[in-house]
Amino acid sequence: MAEIDILHYRRGSSKLHNFDPRLKILLMIAYISVILSGSPPAWTVTSILLVPCSYSAGIRLMSIRRELKVFGFLAAVIFLSRAVGVLDTGAGAAAVTGILSAWSFLLIVWTGMVFTAVMDPRELHLLVYWIFRPVPGVSAGRLAAQASFTLVLLPLILDSAHEIREARKARGVELRKNPLKRLHSLAYPLLEKLLLRMEEFSLALEARCFDEDVLRVDFHLHWRDTGWWILYLFPAIAMLSAGALLR
Amino acid sequence: MNNPENTPIIHVENLSHTFANGVRALKNINFQARRGQFILCTGRNGSGKTVFMRHLNALYLPTEGKVLIAGVNTRRDQAFARRTIGMVFQDADSQIVGQTVRQDISFGPENLRLPREEIELRVDKALETMELTSLADQRPHLLSGGEKRRLAIAALLAMNPLALILDEPFSNLDYHGVRSVLRHLVRLHGEGHTIILVTHEIEKAAAHAGRMILFDKGSLVEDGEPSSVIPKVGAYGMRPFESYGQEIDSLTWLK
Fold first, then answer.
1. Contact A164, A8 (CB under 8 A)
2. Which of B99, B107, B113 lies nearest to residue A208, judging by beta carbons?
3. Does B57 touch chain A (CB under 8 A)?
4. How high is the ipTM of this complex?
5. Would you give per-residue pLDDT tens digits along chain B (255 residues)?
6. Cβ A152–B99 below 8 Å, yes or no?
């Protein structure tokens, strides 16, 4: 099976991989905040910064380009809906608005790709557990398990969608004109397949004595990493501040 | 006093299972398995094999009758049943939890809350036994079908179960993959493991089994040596033995 190579954890020993999971999530929030701040200069810097981050995460630029095609359709929808929404400002301005919106969407996906590539689901489990453990009435272990398994299952869901899409193509789905019928022929089998897969997955977890309160890794915040995380975090915070000032 | 060595690993008494929608999947099953046996479980699709096996791992509980694992009722202690009976599912992909082969194997022992050193020892041993050491840091989803099945078996071995149940372990495997999985199963049996192999492809492994059980429409209809059961499989909608054109001793893909 041609597996979709997106949103996978990639085992590695880079600086980004070795960051404390709390720092990784902080970085991701900082980057996404910068993107959402809506400042094109900040997006340019973010795009430039994401290049070394991607290499550090073990993702090649060519593969990013290929994988982002998966989200190209959604980006096109965002472009069109945003551009059409401001068409009264002139065609040129509407096109720029559309492009900027699609760009910010793709940047968020790219940031997500880098984050999932360096965040071991076991670390995510630990992180969510650490965040929610002090909250009364919340099962931190269960939440942590759900978060980490989502990261495990995400690529499998994309693989399933890819398989069904190919099977539909083989049976001439492109000849159908009605987009709703086309969507239905994808959504229904995908949902059915996912539900069956989730059931199998949960049985397999039970069969292996799954215990949601077992923490499989530990935090490892080292002072020697401080320089590195300042290097990664500082530009993000600076851009965020600049973006807020420029608005 | 009972000698634990003489206690059957699996003791099933009058087991019936009816699903919530009213489908009666198992009817009054009686069955025992002892240490070191290699049992081949067969039957047509939908005959009840998988539902039965899931009772042995306490994934399903009987609606009537009882299942004892090493003398302990599955209704009383499900965790014990899962520690004692390891199960490999038909779809190897749905069993993969870890992001690397090593992580996936360590998942079970971690759930058992074993000390880290003990986990590492067990993982290394399981990797070595299933010849996966060179793939320890590989992403499991990128393994071949045969390697994924071997990984699923290694993941169980690390939990040290008394018996291994494999549900259709040869499905979707090529010739090389089938031989590789079968070779490891035969070796594990030789080392004293109890194996229950669920398959309708009896020509691939029947020669290695010492006992064979046959399911039909939710009932256990035949139980005996392969030489006495195999000639009857045609009567239950399976490929008739005569069509194999082989002796029972030759029903293996290892030759």
1. no
2. B107
3. yes
4. 0.79
5. 455 556 789 999 999 999 999 999 999 999 999 999 999 999 999 999 999 999 999 999 999 999 999 999 999 999 999 999 999 998 888 788 888 899 999 999 999 989 999 999 999 999 999 999 999 988 888 899 889 999 999 999 999 999 999 999 998 888 988 999 999 999 999 999 999 999 988 999 999 999 999 999 999 999 999 999 999 999 999 988 877 777 888 888 887
6. yes
